[in-house]
Amino acid sequence: MKKLRCLLVLLFTLFSISTISAQFGNGYGGNGLNGGNRMSQMGGMNQQSQPEKPKEIPVEVTVGKIIDMMKPEINLDELQVIAISNVLAESIRTQGILMKQVTNQEDQIKDFKALSEVTDRKIMDFLNVEQKPKYIAFKEGLKTQKKSKPEKKSRSEKKQK
Question: DSSP for 91-145?
Answer without folding.
Answer: HHHHHHHHHHS---HHHHHHHHHHHHHHHHHHHHHHS-TTHHHHHHHHHHHHHHH
